[in-house]
Amino acid sequence: MVDPLHQFTIHPLIKLEVGGWDISFTNSALLMVLTTLLISIFFYFSVKPRAMVPTRFQMVSELFYTFISDMIRENTGKAGLPYFPYIFSLFLFILMGNMLGMFPYSFTFTSHIIVTFTLAALVISSITIIGFAKHGFHFLRLFFPSNTPLYILPILVPIEIMSYLIRSVSLSIRLFANMIAGHAMLKLFGGFALALVGTIYFPVAIASVALSVLITGFEFLIALLQAYIFTILTCIYLNDALNLH
């Protein structure tokens, strides 16, 4: 029987233990390192020529650059542009991680809640620091907007604080759930088709393969879309910290 969740199991590749803590180098860590290396290598060689007539790789890198810079400008204004390197790196890391996970015998580290929650927590904590650095304690007005009646303060403030803190949970679960659901579905349909090969239900197996191909194409779109959603929500949250209303 096909286990659709087996593909998400973390396996230690190099076992390491320091002070009783297991810090083994795992397949998840390997894909994260590989993701970082591939992004670095791609942009190094795509921008190194600096040609007046851009190469195909340079055009792709410029497309990514323009796409993210426009996203930041549209959602935060010019005030958000200094944070372009962080948001750009975040988008590429999630996108490349999602895409690498689509290859057979690979591993999708964005399908683990600990990874997506860490990314989301870094985003929210960074934005909180930026908010306090820019506005001081006036940043707390985010939880109690101007011209709000004082009598609803005891109800509104806890709700706003909870809503703010829950952002890291919603960001992480959205990415994690979409990636794990799609890959599990592909595994189920693929295993179902394989089990029917050589039986009288072979036509059903062919239909399952065809459906798997369609789902695979859809999953590539989801991989891109989830990286985009994570990034644009980061820009929206950053706008709250930079431009208090």
Describe the structure.
The protein is mainly α and 245 residues long. It has one domain. 68% of the residues lie in helices and 4% in strands. The protein contains six helices and four strands, in the order E-E-E-E-H-H-H-H-H-H. It has a two-stranded antiparallel ribbon with strand order 1-4. Helix 4 runs parallel beside helix 6. It is globular. The protein starts with 11 loop residues before the first strand and ends with a helix. The mean pLDDT is 87.
What is the fold's blueprint, element by element?
Layout: E1 12-14, E2 17-18, E3 21-22, E4 25-26, H1 27-47, H2 56-76, H3 84-100, H4 113-135, H5 153-196, H6 202-242
Helix pairs in contact: 1-2, 1-3, 2-3, 2-6, 3-6, 4-5, 4-6, 5-6
What's a concise summary of this model?
The chain is mainly alpha-helical. 68% of the residues lie in helices and 4% in strands. The protein has a two-stranded antiparallel sheet with strand order 1-4. A two-stranded antiparallel sheet has the order 2-3.
Series of secondary-structure elements, N-terminal to C-terminal: EEEEHHHHHH
Lateral arrangement of strands in the main beta sheet: 1-4
Shape: globular
Largest sheet descriptor = 2 strands, antiparallel
Uncertain stretches of 5 or more adjacent residues = none
Q: Average pLDDT across residues?
A: 87
**How many individual domains?**
1
What count of helical segments does DSSP give?
Answer: 6
The computed structural class is: mainly alpha
Number of strands: 4
Helical fraction equals 55-70%
* Distance separating the two termini: 55 Å
Over all CA atoms, what is the radius of gyration?
22 Å
